[in-house]
Amino acid sequence: xxTVALIPVRDEDGETRLDRFLRRRFPLLTQxxxxxxxxxxxxxxxxxxAKAADRVRPGQVVRAPPLPDPxxxxxxxxxxxxxxxxxxxxxxxxxxxVIILNKPQGLAVQGGTKTVRHVDALLPALKFERxxxxxxxxxxxxxxxxxxxxxxxxxxxxxxxxYFRGRSLNKVYWAVVLxxxxxxxxxxxxxxxxxxxxxxxxxxxxxRCLQQDEGAAHAVTDYxxxxxxxxxxxxxxxxxxxxxxxxxxxxxxxxxxxxxGDSKYRCDRPTPGELPNALHxxxxxxELPRETGKPxxxxxxxxxxxxxxxxxxxxxxxDGKNPFSAFD
Length: 328
Prior knowledge:
Pseudouridine synthase
């Protein structure tokens, strides 16, 4: 016979609404059923009545009446062994809170009309010792390679998401662009918005706009020249101060130095035909704050197509050993 459950709120649960806390514990219940249990006093927090929107915190205890058993442990989503091995091969850092991937160029983060294979579908392979799959915290374009952060539990998701929203983390991208920007260091600022009539992520683009235009968002990018090959190509370090869709690609094209291999955002400069025809934009490094201790710094190796270009034009990857130093 089922009995009343006393459920402790764990550190990894974080601070969350009572109804959401119960939905995670009892996924077979509907939102309406949960709200009724709370409204009628069958659910209590530290012995007292509560409302659905009240927030529970680590250390508190939630009392719940006899409820349906949770479903059996989640499967790997029907992934093949090949897909599972592939997903796990992308992991370059893992701890109790986050998983960080080095996403390859050409792999979408989420699915679309014609996109079946994507990071979101591979997440069940990244549960490791936990019952729940990790959660996406931010996005990278399909054709952008590099660091992608996942949260392993709700408290980590809330904390890391706040870092991205509050701009308290440091991200550095590497790009190869057409031409050589002058001045070699600077900041790009302006207003942009999504173009109309984009039916899916593959067609989505942004455009320049005025501050008063509907959907206008202010975008800011720091840039630094790492090396150039005459006036033909340049290796750039880019730091997005804001995080708008296609921001780096759009900004570089706007100043007349489109990213090599970008089929959406172009400029009036010749594209070398002998180099790999893929987007040369890589989320190279990230610095995540931690609650205690020094920030976590992770650097992602370059993808093969960018290594090929570096070698062909004489850029020395070792010259950028500390990607953050470009903006010191």
